[in-house]
Amino acid sequence: MVTVQNKSRRSSDILKFVGWVAGIILLNVLAANFFFRLDLTEDKRYTIAPVTKQMLSSLENEVVVDVYLEGDFPAGFKRLQQSVRETLDEFRIYSGGNLRFNFIDPNEISDQEQRTEFITNLAQKGINPTNLRATEEGKQVERLVFPGAIVRYNGKETAVNLLKGNLAASPDERLNQSVEGVEYELASAIRKVAFQGNKVIGYITGQGELQMQQVTDLLGSLQEYYRVARGELGEIPSLQGLDLIIVAKPTEQFTEADKYKIDQFIMKGGKAVFFVDALNANMDSVGAGGMFAVPYNLNLDDLLFRYGVRLNPTLVMDLNSGFIPMVTGYAGDRPQTEMINWRFFPLLNNFSQHPITRNLDAVYTRFVSTIDTVRADGITKTPLVFTSPYSRVLEPPVPITLEEARMEVNPELFQAGPEPVGYLLEGAFTSLFRNRRPPAGVPDTQVKEQGVPTKIAVFSDGDLVRNEINPRTGQAYELGFDRYNNITFANRDMAMNTIHYLLDSEGLINVRSKQIELRPLDRVRVRDEKTYWQLLNLVAPIVLLSIFGVTRYYLRKRKYEHF
């Protein structure tokens, strides 16, 4: 009787154990049909920012992404390729299926003519190939790599450059910077084509600012995200209706009424970017026999001082600088031209870790001044960009001649250290016109003395956003393009990042702060941690339950056999 009862209990235990295992398997199968992500990596490399998730979930139609980073690459490019693939896969899931991506290798096109046409078409869209040198089977080989993508939505498309970062960094560091920026670059491109911006930017004129042709590239780039208007400050009653204003290299004095309009715009939450020269210096006068750089009288010092910064009437020379063509001799009647280091054109390659400037390439400047901070209660002041440690600060009047480029450099004179030349100011500003009457000629006479929280940025180089003009065709070059050396610097990226940060209430620009530690394993890994954690998440409950069930079964078996 006892034996039959024991057998019945054993059978019952076995059935319960099988039922538990079947239940766990069923639970895992059901869970696979629900959305679930768990990032257990230390640097959260697989975590998509909430602002990106919200944007993707708001897509009404399908986004198609064609990625041209395909082929047999060295480990570093494979890591970038894998990061792009994983990010797009996450995007696809968070978009609810409204995103589709393809990886295309232009080098697989067998027909030479068709391949050339295809590559030319990509270049016209902004995806330029990189010549990659690698060693295969003991031989040096070269291969064209296309580190870019095209994002399409409802008939609109835009190109994405996936190989970003600072050219001064090592190849591994630059690839890691590119990996860190993958989410932002792709998300920013999707926002550009899928979501019409409603913010309005005003380009201010009337004080001798850069002409429209000289800011064609910047304003054209901004129009892809925002609405852009132009207005002469003296002819408009106020700046209300705008979200941000740009003041780019004014050369004439601001009236008190002009400053009042800017001040009250900022007090009411408006954003502003100032690209201002402290000293009057230009290459046309230098080339004509030299000049003395003297301070401008812009009547802006008190306004910027009240907001927390002082634009110093100085001129910075830097050993890390750009080059200009100079005649160094003659061969018969023909002048011989060489590229000479011009220390009045600093190359800025020293940035803070703020989202605006993180992982930027070098920025080209012309006749830049230093900036100091002053007391402004409640204002957070963040330096964005600095000169190199090998700089020299000159007080006006500063003699500038081309002969200076030919002179021997005395390193002892270039010990000023990194000098800040760009600041971000955030907080509730106090009006310049506090406890003062409004100036004559303004319709708004109710002074708002304490502002609401907002943001402004100040850079001490008016030419930072000036694009060169092709002297033969009259067409504008790309912003940051050095036509003498055929190099494009990151001027446009820094200007765009600054404006995105000031206007980005959702915080997409903060995705640029993503930091991924470069580890030795990353250079050779094939699969990453996420795969193993997903597998562990599936198998671990079954293994643990099996151990529990088997242990319980044998404990009870021993109990029955005791009887």
Structure in words:
The protein has 563 residues and is an alpha+beta fold. 31% of the residues lie in helices and 25% in strands. The chain contains 12 helices and 26 strands. The radius of gyration is 31 Å and the shape is globular. It starts with a helix and ends with a helix.
Care to give the gist of this entry?
This protein is an alpha+beta fold and 563 residues long. The chain has helices at 2-32, 50-57, 75-94, 112-125, 171-180, 182-194, 216-222, 256-267, 283-287, 301-307, 491-503, 529-562; strands spanning 63-67, 99-103, 130-136, 139-145, 148-153, 156-161, 200-205, 227-232, 244-248, 271-275, 279-280, 291-295, 309-311, 315-318, 321-331, 334-348, 350-351, 363-364, 371-373, 379-386, 391-394, 398-400, 420-427, 454-459, 481-482, 487-488.
Search tags:
563 residues, alpha+beta, 4-stranded mixed beta sheet, 12 helices, 26 strands
Which helices and strands occur, and which strands form pairs?
Blueprint (H helix, E strand, L loop, with lengths): L1 H31 L17 H8 L5 E5 L7 H20 L4 E5 L8 H14 L4 E7 L2 E7 L2 E6 L2 E6 L9 H10 L1 H13 L5 E6 L10 H7 L4 E6 L11 E5 L7 H12 L3 E5 L3 E2 L2 H5 L3 E5 L5 H7 L1 E3 L3 E4 L2 E11 L2 E15 L1 E2 L11 E2 L6 E3 L5 E8 L4 E4 L3 E3 L19 E8 L26 E6 L21 E2 L4 E2 L2 H13 L25 H34 L1
Parallel strand pairs: 1-2, 7-8, 7-9, 9-10, 10-24
Antiparallel strand pairs: 1-5, 3-4, 5-6, 11-12, 12-22, 13-19, 14-21, 15-16, 16-18, 17-20, 20-23, 23-24, 25-26
Helix pairs in contact: 1-12, 3-5
